[in-house]
Amino acid sequence: VLGLLVWALIADTTYHLHAAYGWVMFVSIFFWILTVLFFVTYLLQLQLKFYMIPWSLVLMIFNAAATVLYITAFVTCAAAVQPTSWRQWDYNRRAAASFFACLTMITYGVSTFFSFRAWKGLGSNAATSQVTDHA
């Protein structure tokens, strides 16, 4: 949802006049589509049919790449916002897109952390933990 907000807000401005927003559009649309594809994969449990793929590693790499590229998109978007723009609605939308790009970057960063923990097998919950010490 956050990535959708980023590219929808940028797409509603005159982004084609500024080359920096092309990069923001690419990153936001690309990772939004991939995120939706991963969501559908997990929703339909297709990862169980492709058991030979290390899904926890794939998700960790995906989230890490999304975090790094969203850092660049956020910095680019925030740096390109010009408060002296003659079109006030473009300024507001671009500033909001910068804010949501930052939130999306943080969200992907947190997902990277949890994906790393899942990949390493750190932490468990009550459903997966087993008692191995019997008296």
Automatic annotation (TrEMBL):
Transmembrane segments: 20-44, 56-81, 96-116
Domain (MARVEL) ranges: 1-120
GO BP term, example: myelination
Chief localisation class: membrane
Organism annotation: Phaetusa simplex
Annotated Gene Ontology cellular component terms: apical plasma membrane; myelin sheath
Localisation per UniProt entry: Apical cell membrane; Myelin membrane
Keyword Ribonucleoprotein: no
Highest taxon, organism lineage: Eukaryota
Protein's name according to its UniProt entry: Plasmolipin
Gene designation per UniProt: Pllp
Membrane protein topology class: Multi-pass membrane protein
Keyword Transmembrane helix: yes
A GO MF term: structural constituent of myelin sheath
